[in-house]
Amino acid sequence: MGRIVVTEFVSLDGVMEAPGGEKFKYPGWSFEFDRGEEGNQFKLDETLDAEALLLGRVTYEGFAAAWPSQKNEFADKFNSMPKYVVSSTLEHPEWNNSTVLKGDVADEVTKLRRQIDGDIYVHGSCRLAQTLIEHDLVGELHLMVLPVLLGTGRRLFGDTSDKKTLRLVESKTVGSDGVLILTYAPVAKKGT
Question: What does DSSP assign to residue 136?
Answer without folding.
Answer: T
